[in-house]
Design goal:
Layout: E1 3-5, E2 16-17, E3 21-22, E4 29-38, E5 45-56, H1 59-79, E6 87-89, E7 93-101, E8 110-126, H2 131-141, E9 144-150, H3 156-181, E10 185-196, E11 199-200, E12 215-226
Helix pairs in contact: 1-2
Length: 227
């Protein structure tokens, strides 16, 4: 709904503020709202990152352990229906590091200078993959660091920005109509407020990873009016 807010059209130019000279004339403003409804769908794929790290006093043995653990991860993923083409294995990195070594008791923690071999796998999980079963299987392998799965639509920020621009353009057109009807022309944009599904001033767009099936956006835009 369009609202014309004439804030100071009757301010006299000759009005004086004590010690400050002539008062500043306040410009009238117009406020209009543009709406848009966009539709989305859950992403059909997500990403899972798996870090493998194995240590040993001997460099070759650390490398063998890390490669064997990586092979176990890949086999498990394939058994759970993940395509080999959806698994990216990054290069193995070996560094000198303090490593833990087996001890006679759980209370006697021993460590020594040795080698640590590490690499990570980037896995694309698709909608048909059994995510819970995959995660459960990976946990059984132990000594893995797992991040994800992250089902995020990388195009979401672009889609939301385009929707907001469309809503703002709609608000501007409405404001122009009202400005002309009141004998003014549209000036500069001075303020905007975004509403998400009717929640005015919501900031949830900044954290949105994918667009829900139905999303209603509105932009309330306020413009100065000029003669």
């Amino acid at each position: 709904m369009l609202r014309l807010l004439i804030l100071a059209s009757a301010v006299a130019a000759s009005m004086l503020i004590a010690g400050a000279g002539p008062a500043t004339e306040l410009r009238p403003v117009v406020s209009a709202i543009g709406d848009i409804t966009i539709r989305g769908a859950p992403p059909d794929h997500g990403t899972l990152q798996i870090f493998v790290s194995e240590g040993d006093k001997i460099e070759v043995d650390a490398t063998k352990k890390a490669r064997a653990k990586t092979d176990d991860v890949v086999k498990l993923l394939q058994q759970q229906g993940v395509n080999l083409s959806d698994i990216k294995i990054n290069p193995l990195i070996v560094t000198r590091s303090i490593i833990e070594i087996p001890s006679l008791t759980i209370y006697d923690q021993l460590s020594t200078l040795g080698y640590k071999a590490s690499n990570d796998l980037e896995v694309m999980l698709r909608a048909e993959n059994r995510v819970k079963s995959i995660l459960s299987g990976l946990e059984s392998l132990r000594s893995l660091r797992i991040f994800g799965p992250d089902f995020r639509d990388p195009d979401t920020p672009t889609k939301l920005q385009q929707a907001l621009q469309t809503a703002l353009a709609s608000a501007k057109r409405k404001a122009e109509v009202q400005a002309v009807a009141a004998g003014y022309k549209l000036g500069r944009l001075i303020d905007t407020v975004v509403s998400v599904d009717g929640r005015r001033g919501s900031t949830e767009l900044y954290h949105m990873q994918s667009i829900p099936p139905v999303l209603s956006l509105s932009v309330e835009a306020k413009y100065e009016l000029e003669r």
